[in-house]
Amino acid sequence: MVSTSQNRTERTARLCAEAALFMRDHVLSRVSHDLRSPLNAIHSWAYVLERKIDNGDATAQRALGGIRTGVEQQVQLLETLVDTTRAETRKLRIERAPFAVAALIGEAVDDARTALGDARGVTFVVQDTTGAASLDGDRERIAQALWLMLVFAAETSAHGASVTLAASASATGAQLEVKWHATRQTLIDDALAHVLEPFARAQASEQQEAGRCAWVLALCQRVAEAHGGRFEAPALVGEGEDMALVLNVPLTGA
């Protein structure tokens, strides 16, 4: 018989793998988007130059041909490598079914405690006012997002710190808010226990662009969007500051 401890370890590994998969997808999406704009500009200006340069200048024409060929090759690489690799998660499929919010919260907290909370001495405090509220959504995906929010908070908390999960429900949706006192240095302190990848933690410790969250939280963003909700995260993990991650999900599907 498989032990409960082994089951928890396997679940933690799977949850980490899911977070990494969506982070990879997010990074590839950024690469595809950020490279296409300058490539399109280079391609357009090459045609402008072609009309300005004497057709009799063979060297200049070869140079322009080389530029266009190089751009076309780069675009093809994006389409065949980057976009194809993203196909698995580009459109997040969700399986909707009604489920009790309160039960999911308890399970996500237990998973986060097992994954990192106990090792860090971090306490999870639950303030749940959802009562008998039921969500019509993908239970497993929402659980993954909540787990990642809790683990991220633990990753950026000092030993013995407390992380609060405030859950509430209204007539239209449910809100899951993770609040804690952040210590950015803990993300990259190798002497501490960690569950998220070093690359993800290092990137999360940096200032994010306006309107964008840390790459490792991409799964939370995608889950919220797939349910017609929203995810909020700070642009920078502060040092000694109060922080919050917020997941809002409509009670019923659109």
TrEMBL record:
Molecular functions per Gene Ontology: protein histidine kinase activity
Catalytic activity annotation: ATP + protein L-histidine = ADP + protein N-phospho-L-histidine
Keyword Transferase: yes
Keywords recorded for this protein, A-Z: Kinase, Phosphoprotein, Transferase
InterPro entries from the UniProt entry: HATPase_C_sf (IPR036890), His_kinase_dom (IPR005467), HisK_dim/P_dom (IPR003661), HisK_dim/P_sf (IPR036097)
Source taxon at top rank: Bacteria
PANTHER family, A to Z: HYBRID SIGNAL TRANSDUCTION HISTIDINE KINASE C, TWO-COMPONENT HISTIDINE KINASE
Name the record gives this protein: histidine kinase
Organism this protein belongs to: Paraburkholderia hiiakae
Upper lineage: Bacteria, Pseudomonadati, Pseudomonadota, Betaproteobacteria, Burkholderiales
